[in-house]
Amino acid sequence: MNIVQKGHEFIQERSCLHFREHDPVALARQTNITYLYYTFSEVLESCCLKFYNKPRGRRLVLITPLCKLPAQAGHATLHAMGLHHEKKFGFRDNEAKAVMFPDKCAQRIDALKIFEETLDDLSLQIHSNGR
């Protein structure tokens, strides 16, 4: 399992989100669709990068050598999904919950409990690594 898959698993365990892999070429041919596209870089910089994300189409997720933990790959994924934060701070709680816990989620209560219990640990893992 690569770091992207581990990042997806990390998010899925703490939210109502589920990720599925698709052929990016087939997705690029479709209209009115938004998808995440992961690319790996050898540049030694944080994987917590702000990108301009189009409302539709391909959203780039850059995975760097400093992006070693599942929490860091998950963090980069959430940026590509539209969540942003100020430098040295985590995502805003209410914005993160709006993205990660849609109203129609069977496991919402259990996932929210795990999210709340691990939120502080997640912020420390992300923001103590070179930013």
Automatic annotation (TrEMBL):
It holds the Pfam family Astacin. InterPro entries: MetalloPept_cat_dom_sf, Peptidase_M12A. One of its GO terms (molecular function) is metalloendopeptidase activity. Its cofactor is Zn(2+). GO terms for biological process: proteolysis. Residues 3-93 form the Peptidase M12A domain. This is Peptidase M12A domain-containing protein. It comes from Diatraea saccharalis (sugarcane borer).
